[in-house]
Amino acid sequence: MKIVVDMNLCESHGQCVFAAPGVFSFDDEDTLVYEPNPDDASREAVGRAAALCPVRAITVSPAAP
């Protein structure tokens, strides 16, 4: 799976961090950081994180072959 976060849309609400803390987090400057290619075990949490984003900044797609 591949994750892309539109950082121009992201307002750092943090819902993704709560939903998938192993994939999304904030750095020391409160900027979102994330693993763009998490393992498949994170699929459900990442889907939940994308759905919870109030500005729909997170796009999840299948991994490129």
Number of strands: 4
Mean pLDDT: 95
Radius of gyration, in Å, reads: 11 Å
Summarize the biggest pleated sheet. 2 strands, antiparallel
Relative strand content: 15-25%
Structural class: alpha+beta
Shape: globular
Q: What is the CA-CA span between the terminal residues?
A: 10 Å
Unreliable residue runs: none
Order of helices and strands: EHEEHE
Which oligomeric form is depicted?
A: single chain
Q: What is the spatial order of strands in the main beta sheet?
A: 1-4
Helix percentage range: 10-25%
In DSSP terms (H or I, runs of 4 or more residues), the helix count works out at: 2
Task: Report on the architecture of this protein.
By secondary structure, this protein is α+β, with helices and mostly antiparallel strands. 23% of the residues lie in helices and 22% in strands. It has two helices and four strands, in the order βαββαβ. The chain has helices spanning 15-19, 43-52; strands at residues 2-5, 24-26, 32-34, 58-61. The protein has a two-stranded antiparallel sheet. It has a two-stranded antiparallel sheet with strand order 2-3. Strand 2 (24-26) and strand 3 (32-34) form a beta hairpin. The radius of gyration is 11 Å and the shape is globular. The termini are close together. 17% of the residues are buried. The mean pLDDT is 95.
What does the secondary structure layout of this molecule look like, with pairings?
Blueprint: E1 2-5, H1 15-19, E2 24-26, E3 32-34, H2 43-52, E4 58-61
Antiparallel strand pairs: 1-4, 2-3
